Amino acid sequence: MKREIRVKRFGFINVDKASGVTSSAMVNRIKWLSGVPCGHMGTLDPLASGVLPVGVGNATRLFDYFLEKQKTYLAEFTFGETSDTLDRTGEIVKGGLVPSESEITAVLPKFIGELDQIPPKYSAKNVNGRRGYDLARAGVEFSLPPKRIVVHGIECLGASKERENAYLFKIVCGGGTYIRSLARDIAIACGTQGLMSELRRTQSGIFTLENALSIDDLTEENIAESVIPTDTVLPFPKLELISPKAYKIFDGVAIETDAKDGLYKFYREDEFYGIVEVKNGFAKIKTKLC
What we know:
With 290 residues, the protein is mainly beta. The chain is built from 4 helices and 18 strands. It has 3 domains: 11-65 and 208-232, Pseudouridine synthase (2-Layer Sandwich), CATH 3.30.2350.10; 71-204, Pseudouridine synthase; 236-288, Archaeosine Trna-guanine Transglycosylase, Chain: A, domain 4 (Roll), CATH 2.30.130. It has helices at residues 23-34, 101-107, 132-137, 179-189; strands at residues 11-17, 38-40, 49-56, 71-79, 81-83, 92-94, 113-117, 126-127, 130-131, 147-159, 166-173, 194-204, 207-208, 228-229, 255-256, 262-268, 271-279, 282-288.
């Protein structure tokens, strides 16, 4: 039975994902409540909690514009042990020294800036048409090439009060960064081994914990009012065309403009229509939403 469409405006719902559930489960719940296609904008591991922006309806067409958005995490790394998944959900192997806070702080500058990072084998990385986690679970031997990431800042906040041999970290990084890999690499730099024991994402671009909603608080009655309009989360200026032939832009025609090169939000009357790209004095629709 097809669900009733319960949202008339498309956009984003900022979910505070709980630990122990998958990002896909959050998306499926919102899809069921809203009655329209949905997708998440940057997955969180089941262990992790925090900000998970979910695109509702045609807002999913805009994910590419958020790929490089800045993210902030609060993480807990446990030293003197590791696992096949690089977090505490995997098969734990103990061994190695537990560094002091000063020893950890001394190596952190090595992990700021542009880095080549090897993703965890238990990840969604594609290897010859198969996901890394599927190969790892099947016991297949494989390797993943390093990928370029950027870490804007990383700070040790001191020893954890919840777990022995663990420290807390604040990490600000670009999209595509694996925090589990940072735990592994920081431990190696300290001459030991380590894993990610807790993770909470506090910010993903414009989305923060302060305006995030628990999935349990979303209902069929309030789902529509919980949607953040698409155009309000895009960091682009609005473009207005005054040419008599401006309406032809809706037919895919490039329209002359004095605007600077770049991306703009574009409206048809009062309705957000999509993204326009201006290049060399001409504006053309790049992504259409309606």
